[in-house]
Amino acid sequence: MDSKYASYGKEKDQRNKFDIKAKKIKLSVDGNSFKNVKENNQANGSCNNNTVSALNEVSEDVQDVRKSLPVYIVRNRILEEIRKNNTMILIGETGSGKTTQIPQILHEQRLEGNGAIAVTQPRRVAAITLALRVATEMNTEIGSYVGYSVRFEDATSPKTKVIYLTDGMLLREAIIDPLLKKYSIIILDEAHERTVNTDVLFGIVKLAQKERNCKGNKLKVIIMSATMDVDTFRNYYDNCSVVYLEGRTYPVTIYHSKTKQDDYQYSVVCAIFQLHVTTPANHHFLVFLTGQEEIETVMANIKQIAKESPGPPIRVCPLYAGLPPAKQLLVWKSVPEGTRKIVLATNIAEASVTIPHIKCVIDTGLVKERSWCNVTGAERLRIVPCSQAACWQRAGRAGRTAPGSAYRLYTNGDFKARPQHNTPEIIRCPLAATLLMLIATGMEPSTFPLIDAPSPDSVQASLILLKELGAIESENNPKLTVLGKKMTAFPIDPKYSKVILSAPEHGCLDEALSLVAVMSSENVFHTPLHKREEAVKAKQKFVSTLGDHITLLNVFKMFCKAPLKKQWCKENYLNHKNLSYACDIRHQLLAICQKLNMEVSSCGTAFDQLLKCLLSGLFTNCAWTRGGMTTGAGKYATASGAAAALHPASSLHGLRPPPPAVLYTELLHTRRAYLLTVSAIEPHWLHQVAPEYARRCRANR
Ligand SMILES: Nc1ncnc2c1ncn2[C@@H]1O[C@H](COP(=O)(O)OP(=O)(O)OP(=O)(O)O)[C@@H](O)[C@H]1O
Q1: Cα(313)–Cα(651) distance, rounded to whole angstroms?
Q2: Are 655 and 548 in contact (CB under 8 A)?
């Protein structure tokens, strides 16, 4: 193993260094009593035992753990503040118990009255696992007093009092009821993440609170985070009270790489095996990577090296957004005693989640970030360094149930050079979906109160896109069209709801539903590194020369017909979980279509119809060969003029001559720019299905 990866500069945990300038009330945990509780726990073996508990297989005394949390210890003071203030910001260390304890403390006092308590989370895995944990702590079933609501899954009932839900789900509820009357208390958690949905929710909740307070139907709002920019939030919420909770659970020792790492995937594998041979097996690892493909590659490498490496047996668990929920939860399952669990995750494991017995975090310091081009509306994905706040959150995952360590594969200098906080997503992301939601709730986009307003150009570009999608009447007077209203019925991006809603016109709703469903799930192909050739060969039987979309459709159709699905997937190197998840999604999309009285037509093998239908929603994602010739190895120019190559995994890769025009699903920027999930189209189709955009696009090219 290369020795340069062994050298980490040790540094003291600096999690307290965040500068909080706002006037604040400090609530301190009594150091001695906290220490004693911790020591007692350890003496009881409740934090240090070797048995790894799955989420619902509670081996520790949850009530003891609960009572040792800083938030629990000062709960009476916190309650006092919450009673006094309609709006409050609560800052507390990662792991201090904000997300699991505050809702319970409120509910124990019945502060929610006849309403419910909503706790928003930027990510579904956090919403689900938190609800499961809190249900266990409250000794109740999920869906009873505690529940969760995430896209495509609602585990609540009329008697649910504490609801963990994604910010996107609360936004959808706001379309039906902008005053969110179902809730008497709304907790906006992980405020520092500044996702576009959370930023919009800040505004919706602020307006709802103002109006409801006038009508005597009060709404309490609590904003929580470990690392947020307090001054900005305090100004936005009219100088509301800030409660700063001092006190932590377990220390995390931070190590930085001494030298810059050129190949982080390689560094990750080296770091894992260096630590693997020197750390006890019950210290599980959590590794932060940037995406599914990378996770699969690293996973394959670990499995390969593990065969010859000394040290305990290894169980590798992936965790990324597109993984079907049931598979995500496997991360919380116990492993046999003496086995090391290594979780390979994207930033979805960064905030709010607790994976028991993770004592070692290995952080690449990178994240895959979505941004977009105002002019053409095309989106792109880039791998970029994450903010300091994100780095602290990641490190915090190591100190949840015991003291831990975080190994950063970047230097201290690199860390210090990073921005303190995440750039709000609203500044860099496409806004069409958000604006559609706002317009649907009856809000006026130009006067809507946002903490950080996106540039007027960006808003205008998104309104133009909505106009071209047929969702609004005009960009200057944004009113929903009949089509736009229907689009809001689907919990998916407006580009994809447009595809579904255009399908009857192209006679292909059956196929469009399957395609959108399979594209909403994650990669269906499973390509283990050591069996790459077999996997590539197996893929051939599904490949269409028309491109990856029809290839995906072929896979999905054959999966639906296969009698022994698991076995069939194994034989064909396909991901059974992702395909099953696609089936669930299709089911739900179909139910919405049926509610809208749409007729389910099929185009059979007339795939031109399906591709035109796909283009009617994804028209911003076209690329052309330059002057009819590809430049270099399959290079195309996107609508913004950026050069990009077909991804080597595309079924069009290597086709001679290359199709003059293609439709892609995503533009990925790694060392090169790649078009992902690509189909050949006829250049004139763009004019047929999106004439306004085609004219605008030609003028810009
Ligand atoms: N699923 C779980 N299994 C075991 N312990 C858990 C679980 N969820 C929470 N805990 C315990 O409760 C503690 C508090 O978790 P909680 O999510 O409430 O903290 P938090 O202050 O909201 O942290 P963050 O800012 O990171 O979201 C954890 O550190 C851990 O000790």
Answers
A1: 38
A2: no
Mean of pLDDT values over 134-152: 93
Q: How far is the CA of 55 from the centre of ligand 1 (A)?
A: 12
Residue 134 contacts residue 203 (beta carbons within 8 Å): no
Give the pLDDT confidence of 89-118 residue by residue, as tens digits: 999 888 899 999 999 999 999 999 999 999
Residue closest to 464 by CA, chosen among 425, 499, 430, 503: 430
Which of 138, 319, 361, 401 is the best mutation target for the ligand 1 pocket, counting ligand atoms within 8 Å of the beta carbon and taking the most?
401
Tokens of 54: 């799955």
For ligand 1, atom 4, which residue shows the shortest CA distance?
Answer: 356
Whose CA is closest to 347, among 171, 195, 200? 195
CA atoms of 263 and 272, how far apart (whole Å): 14
Residues 23-38 pLDDT 10s: 344 554 433 222 222 2
Band (pLDDT 50/70/90 cuts) for residue 372 is: low
Does 1 have pLDDT greater than 80? no
Nearest CA to ligand 1 atom 8: 354
- How do residues 561-589 score in pLDDT, each as one tens digit? 999 999 999 999 998 888 998 998 899 99
Looking at residue 2, its pLDDT comes to 34
C-alpha triplet 693, 697, 699: angle, nearest 5°: 120
Check residue 696 and give its pLDDT. 79
For 499-576, list the strands marked E by DSSP.
none
Q: What angle is formed at CA 12 by the lines to CA 6 and CA 14, rounded to 5 degrees?
A: 120
Q: Is 247 in the pocket of ligand 1 (CB under 6 A)?
A: no
Taking alpha carbons only, the member of 550, 541, 519, 531 closest to residue 652 is: 550
Task: Tell me the C-alpha distance between 390 and 654, whole Å.
Answer: 40
Cis before 657? omega within 30? yes
Task: Give the burial class of 575: count Cβ atoms within 10 A of its Cβ; 0-12 exposed, 13-18 middle, 19 or more buried.
Answer: buried
Pocket lining: 92 vs ligand 1, CB cutoff 6 Å:
yes
Instruction: Tell me, using a 6 A CB cutoff, whether residue 69 lines ligand 1.
Output: yes
> What is the edge-to-edge ordering of all strands in the sheet holding 116-121?
25-28, 241-246, 87-92, 220-225, 183-188, 116-121, 162-166, 146-150, 153-155
Give the residue, by CA position, lying nearest to ligand 1 atom 9: 354
Cα separations (Å) of 217 from 208, 223, 317, 331? 10, 20, 46, 42
> What is the ipTM score, two decimals?
0.98
Centroid of ligand 1 to alpha carbon of 437 (angstroms): 32
Q: Name residue, tokens 């831990």.
A: 404
Q: Which of 379, 405, 381 is nearest to 394 (CA)?
A: 405
pLDDT value of residue 529 = 65
pTM listed for this prediction: 0.78
Ligand 1 centroid–CA 95 distance in Å is 5
The fraction of the chain above a pLDDT of 70, given in percent, is 88
Question: Using a 6 Å cutoff on CB, does residue 98 contact ligand 1?
Answer: yes
Q: Which helix (H) or strand (E) holds 284?
A: strand 284-288
- The answer for 357, left when phi > 0, alpha when psi is -120 to 50, beta otherwise, is left
Q: Where are the beta strands (DSSP E) in 304-393?
A: 314-319, 340-345, 358-363, 366-372, 379-385
